[in-house]
Design a protein that fits this description.
CATH topology of the largest domain: Purple Acid Phosphatase, chain A, domain 2
Helix content: 10-25%
Number of strands: 27
Oligomer: single chain
Shape: globular
Radius of gyration: 23 Å
Distance between the termini: 57 Å
CATH class of the largest domain: Alpha Beta
Number of domains: 2
Structural class: alpha+beta
CATH architecture of the largest domain: 4-Layer Sandwich
CATH superfamily of the largest domain: Metallo-dependent phosphatases
């Protein structure tokens, strides 16, 4: 084999100069794009939308199935959010959507693979502080990148996106410099930067968490992810339910985040009961997405379950429709699946996306009574970060909990309201 001739010195210098020039062009081309820029597709109250964030003064260019389309301003910049938020309605049969030069995947008519993730933010509240600068202590970016590789048809975020409420304590080096509060810097650090790959990998649905209520991160929630219109200076205490056709299954997204867990809140019982009663108009298999679970368990102490929701249990009592097969939730910081001897929808919880984990989830809690409902099959994963996947099969769905490295933790088959776990 003949060795390659070395380049003459003058030619090597020319190649180096050309390389440096190309790198400079790449840098300056990128610098026009270096401002904050994010794009995603979201299923909301009025249907499917493309949404975008930009630091430009105008909404980005867009096209639908090769035809130019004009995005409208959703929220204008202010001091706390110096970015423009734009939106564009899409027909459900749209196939190719491009926003700011980036292709996005609209939801298919039949959704066969649903990624579940919740409680993804990094907790900063007074002296309770995670090491937000450590991917080991807060591996949401890792989990989001691995989840994107699984190519879901739809991502369902089960609420609680922003946890950075107060400054990192001076004694904590692991979160030094972290932004905090309901502002763009904190939202970018807690969700948009680490979740970018997953955000662009599939269409999204967002269930509102209690961290997105009117006293916490409502401004960012309302600008970016609220299913209805953004109204400056306004916050909905309750957002109305809306339904999404997944192809053979209807998913109803419900805002139940203000429900009191430890005691029955009669005022809210009446509000939620009316919403549960309204589900009877939906025909065929029905799933409910809500941040707070009804009959979940964060721990079982002396045979007594902890973590149920007494307000939601009272609201759903006697009015949960027979075709409601599953409730998809976060809030408890674990992966958990539960089905019941009583005629009640199965509960699937995927709240292990980033915030501090529940330390003692019950590994197996068959037979435990939760608020007068008896568990038939109850399984929780070990306290590790991750996400979950629902995959459609013949006559059943497989639900699998994963850790942040996409290693499976628990896998079960869901048939109607019943779970069969390996």
């Amino acid at each position: 084999m003949t060795a390659a001739n070395p380049q003459p010195p003058r030619r090597r210098k020319l190649l180096c100069a050309l390389g440096a020039f190309a790198a400079a062009l790449t840098f300056f081309a990128g610098s026009a794009y270096a401002g904050d820029s994010y794009q995603w597709i979201q299923i909301a109250e009025s249907g499917v939308e493309a949404r975008a964030i930009t630091q430009d003064s105008n909404c980005p260019k867009a096209s639908i199935d090769g035809r130019p389309a004009e995005m409208a301003v959703r929220a204008r910049p202010d001091a706390a959010f110096p970015i423009l938020v734009c939106s564009l309605p899409l027909a459900r049969n749209a196939k190719e959507v491009v926003v700011d030069g980036r292709p996005l995947d609209p939801p298919p008519p039949r959704v066969d693979k649903i990624l579940l993730i919740g409680d993804t933010g990094c907790r900063l509240k007074s002296i309770i502080a995670q090491d937000c600068n450590s991917i080991k202590a807060w591996p949401f970016r890792l989990a989001a990148d691995m989840a994107a590789e699984m190519a879901p048809d739809l991502v369902l975020h089960l609420g609680d996106l922003l946890y950075r409420e107060t400054a990192c304590p001076a004694i904590r080096k692991g979160c030094v410099g972290s932004p905090f509060g309901d502002n763009w810097a904190a939202w970018k650090a807690d969700f948009f930067d680490p979740g970018e790959a997953l955000l662009q990998s599939a269409s999204w649905i967002f269930a509102r968490g209690n961290h997105e209520n009117c006293l916490r991160a409502q401004e960012g929630w309302s600008r970016f992810f609220a299913p209805g219109r953004y109204e400056p200076g306004q916050c909905r205490e309750f957002e109305p339910p809306y339904s999404v056709d997944l192809g053979g299954v209807t998913l109803v997204v419900m805002d139940l985040m203000e429900s009191e867990e430890r005691a029955i809140d009669e005022k809210r019982v009446n509000i939620y009961r009316e919403q549960f009663e309204g589900l009877s108009a939906i025909k065929g298999p029905l799933w409910i997405a809500s941040h707070k679970p009804i009959y979940g368990s964060a721990a079982v102490l002396l045979g007594i379950s902890q973590g149920d929701n007494k307000t939601l249990a009272a609201a759903a009592h006697g009015v949960m429709p027979e075709n409601a097969q599953a409730i998809l939730s976060g809030h408890l910081h674990t992966f958990e699946v539960v089905s019941y001897i009583d005629n009640f929808p199965a509960q699937i919880i995927s709240g292990h996306g980033g915030d501090y984990l529940d330390p003692f989830p019950p590994k197996k809690f068959d037979g435990v009574v939760i608020n007068d409902v008896t568990v038939e099959v109850g399984r929780s994963a070990p306290p590790v970060f991750g996400f979950a996947l629902l995959e459609r099969g013949e006559g059943a769905w497989t639900v699998t909990g994963y850790d942040a490295h996409a290693r499976p933790l628990i896998s079960c088959r869901l048939r109607a309201r019943k779970l069969d776990c390996e």
